[in-house]
Every structure is written in structure tokens, then in C-alpha cells.
Amino acid sequence: MTDDTKLSADKVAAFLRQNPEFFQQRSDLLELMRLPDPRGPAVSLLERQAAILRERNQELRERLNGLIDVARENDQLFEHTRRLTLALLEARSTDKLLRSLEEEFRCDTVALLLHDREAKLLGEVRKQVRFVDPDDLPQPLAPLLRTGKAVCGVLRGEELKALFQDQAEQVRSAAVVPLEHNGRLGILAIGSRDAMHFRSSMGTLFITHIGQVLSRRLVDVSRPASPRQAQRA
Fold this sequence. Notes:
This protein is an alpha+beta fold and about 230 residues long. Helices cover about 45% and strands about 15% of the residues. It contains 7 helices and 7 strands; from the N terminus they run ααββααβββαββαα. It has helices at about 10-20, 25-30, 45-90, 95-105, 155-165, 205-220, 225-230, and strands at about 35, 40-45, 110-115, 130, 150-155, 175-180, 185-190. The termini are far apart.
């Protein structure tokens, strides 16, 4: 037999791809075929196929378990979102807004940087709120806010200092949310002593939604009421 008449490995592979049922009528050939196995002695094709199927089943089980974990976490996030949204809608002061955030996020500190210097602030909330012009934000926050989106995870020391000031040393992870409603309102920062409480792998859909609700409520509760609104109250 000359080289021209020999079947090449590529031709055999192409033939089997086009005829996947070839071995259905030739089970004796399957039993004769031996395949090297990196985990031990050579095994038959059927044994190798069974091992591959077991491995794939294990991968599928792990993926399914992962999807179940994600679904469970999403259920918890939805419940947090529902409760916090209702709490924010019911709040009648900036102080109550921040208290609701602390309670639902189970966090250790909340900081609020507002651009509106006319915001009406009462009580202890003044200690957690700072006024800063939108074009004069602390320099360390520029990279953090460049995308205009919420950020979760472990922040750098200078970023923590710019957000939390005297409380910065106790914060190990944080969520930072730009607040916007008909323009930029400010920045919400939520800090935790737990480095894993706000992880960079966390989705930001939940925290972004809360930021949108909070932005609208801040406009309602932090600006002085007009004489007409005061008469209605």
C-alpha cells in the first residue's frame, strides 16, 4: 500500500464526523479500541466515554448549584430592596433616610456628600453630611467616580479618608453611589468594618436602585418647604 492509498488521520476524523452512527453497527470495533488515560492504564473507548459523561455531569451539577446560590442571593437582595424602598418612601427627614440605610445595610457608618447647600438638615444627621461643590470634589474621589456608576469593594486609604473622614480607619469595605435627579445631588458612601461586606464581585443593580430612590427622596425632604407647601402641611 502506497502513501497515496493510505487513509490519513484527518480523513478518518472527517468521515466519523459525517457518519456519527458508524460504530452503532460495529460495537466489536469499540471494544477493541484502547485509549491512553493520563490517570492510569489505557481504557476502552466505552469506558472513556463513561468517564467523560461522569465528569460532565459533575460540571453540570456544580453549575446548577452555582445558579441556585445566585438565585438565593437574588431573592435576599430583592427582599432588602423591597424593605428599604418602603422605608425610604416613608421617611420624612434626611436623618430618617440615613437611619434606614444603616439598618437595612447592616453597616457601621454612612456618609453623605451633598451639593445643595440649602438642604434642610436637623439633629445628628449634620455630623454625617458634608457640603461640597460638584466641581470641587476631593481629588482622591475622581478615579472612583469617573464612570458615574456605583462601586463596591475595598477602597484605598485616601478614598476612605475623603469619604468618611474621622471614621475612615474603621471602614474595611464600602459602597459608593453617585446621587442624581435632574442633575447631580451628591454622593452616598456606606462603610463596613467587614472587608467582605461589600465585595467588588457584587452586582451594583441593587445599590444603584436604592441610590435612585434615595435621590428622589432627598429632593423632597431636604429642601425647605415653600409657603404654599407649609400651609398644606
